[in-house]
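Reply to thread "Modeling small-molecule complexes from scratch"

Following up on the discussion above, here's a worked example others can learn from. I took a protein sequence and the SMILES for thiamine diphosphate and predicted the complex. Inputs first:
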Amino acid sequence: MGETKIIESIKGLSKEEYLLKGHIACAGCGATIALRLLFKALGNRVIMVIPACCSSVIPGPYPYTSFAVPVQNIIFESTGATASGVVAALRKRGINDVTVVGWAGDGGTFDIGIQALSGAAERGTDFIYICYDNEAYGNTGVQRSGATPYGAWTTTTPTGKKERKKDMPFIMAAHKIPYIATACPSYPIDFIRKLRKAREIKGTRFIHLLAPCPTGWRYDASKTVQMGRLAVQTGMWVLFEIEYGRFKLNPPSDELIDKAKRRPLEEYLTLQGRFRRLGEEDIQKKQKWVDEDWERYRRYHQTMCLI
Ligand SMILES: Cc1ncc(C[n+]2csc(CCOP(=O)(O)OP(=O)(O)O)c2C)c(N)n1
Ligand SMILES: [Mg+2]
């Protein structure tokens, strides 16, 4: 594996912008902040494969676009399959310095695109798959997905979702791919480091990115970065990597093994209108699940493996 350049500060980032002015994302869109960082991290030697989702609308209407990189907009369920084809075509032409990036929402990953992704991972397709997770079908007006957390309001769960969120990174870990990471645009240096590390690794790399969504989560658009930080500080979202099967918590999550260092989940939940209906019992139930998950993370981190 080649050396990965670690950026010490956000000021050290490239001044180049490949996310141009004029996009039509909602104010405070976490996914769009992440896209800007992604383009800065990887430059323009990338081909993006984007299924139906908010990000296929955000560049604006044809013939205009605010993405200064090649993008293939494809059907909802086929990110893994299309990316496999793009990679095969590049290799056939002897092009090895272009990174293929699948960029799909949680609906397009957890639900409708999971079989194409699973197939691509099983074949070891040489690409980075990023699931930006705003925890609902955002583009069509906020319907529940397999990523929507327990208790969250969506238009199809008006009294709160009754089921729990799938554990997508561990579903990917079961595919034994070489690199899996979680990230959040509120921790940009961590995200960029992971993107650059992923670029150096051959095979299927999967990044699960929490993308706070003011429109769907019902909070003020100015609070997106704070929302992502709170998700991490409460332990609701955990920053980690699984590199060739070895598990590692990343800062600041590595400090949070001790429960006393995690902020109460309630702080995160009460700032979001989508959790407004949650009663005390449900909040406690969710807190218990977070604590139970942390028992697993502690064990994985200490043993560095997934048992
Ligand atoms: C087969 C199919 N079913 C439904 C749709 C309608 N549709 C387009 S985008 C979208 C929501 C995508 O949700 P997600 O993948 O979470 O991305 P987000 O919109 O949240 O960014 C849906 C349901 C479609 N384009 N194709
Ligand atoms: Mg979504």
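What I'd highlight from this example: The chain has a mean pLDDT of 96. The pocket of thiamine diphosphate (ligand 1) is lined by residues 52-55, 76, 105-108, 134, 136-140, 145 (CB under 6 Å). Questions welcome below.
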